[in-house]
Structures are given as C-alpha cells and as structure tokens.
Structure prediction request, 198 residues.
Amino acid sequence: MEYYSRQISKLIEELSALPGIGSKSAQRLAFHILNMPMDHVEQLSGAILNARKNVRYCKQCFTLTDDELCPICKNPSRNQKIIMVVEDTRDLAAYEKTQKYEGVYHVLHGAISPMLGIGPNDIKLKELMKRLQGDVDEVIIATNSSLEGETTAMYISKLIKPTGIKVTRIASGVPVGGDLEYIDEMTLLRALEGRVEL
Ligand code: ZN
Prediction:
C-alpha cells in the first residue's frame, strides 16, 4: 500500500483489521470516509468512541448496555421469572427480533469448550446460578447447536436440575454450528415454541 500516503494507509490498515473487512473493502470504506462531510465523520468517530467507553454489562443479565440495567431487564412488562440463556448479545438480538419472547435473558459471553480451554468459570455461569436463587419459573437454554453450545447446555442443565427449577432446551432445527443471529425469525420462533424439558 506504499502508493497511498501514510495517513490513508493507516486508515485502511485499521479498517481491514475489523472482522469481515478485506483489503478491498477497507480501501472502499477509507475513501468513502475521506469524502464524507466533516461533521458526519465526527459523528461516526464519536459514536465509536462513546460506545466503546460507555458500554458495559447489564448488572442483571450481562448483555452489553450503556446503563446499569439494560432496557429489557428494566421493562416491567417482561416476565422476570423466565430466563433465556444465550451465548452472546447478538443471540439476544436475534430472539428480540421475533417480538414474541416475553421473558428476560442471561448472556454467558461464550460457551464451554474443552478444546479451546474455555471452562465454566470463563463464562457468566456463576452469575446465572446466583440469579436463580431468586424467584424463577423456567430457564430456557438457547445456546448454539454447536458442540460447544450443546456441552454448555448439558452442563447448565445438570447444575440447575437439583434446584427444582424447570430447565428447557430450544428445539433442534437450528442448523448445527449455525450462529443464531443468521437464522430467520420463524425458525427461531419454532425452536423456542418447540422447546423440550431437560
Ligand atoms: Zn439486562
């Protein structure tokens, strides 16, 4: 990239370090940004900076939010006694898009993977168990159908069973290894409605 001046190259380099952005896209984005009105560029960089600085975990469900409690946990019409366990915030967003789920969530931020050396203590599992000391009717395990997701689901259900709280797993039909965020809303809804007790 020597044919670009140093600051342009730097911008392209930073953009191409983002996931899913190849060097061609990075160049296209860089030149797009350079042609944008200055106030728009300031809005963009400000949004990135503010989000990164202020976004943190919801103290109840551990999704990413910019407040102490996320909008879902704060919403009085959500059923706090039903907790859906998902791997990350994007999975939560996928279920929210169905607009049919009325419970709340718990975001693990990962899944157990012996292969990658990720154990139960590396995800927000202790935090889930602590929540279950409150008044909870059902825990819906909606981890991915990958090996890691299934391992995590089994582990969690074994942990919860002795508490007497109902534990369900979303129905299969969600493609194996498929990220929940890429699955259409109807499929997710069917998976949710067809959940089975573990
Ligand atoms: Zn929350």
Observations:
- The beta strands are 56-57, 64-65, 79-86, 103-107, 138-141, 166-169, 196-197.
- The chain has a mean pLDDT of 90.
- Residues 64-197 form a domain with the Dna Topoisomerase Vi A Subunit; Chain: A, domain 2 fold (CATH 3.40.1360.10).
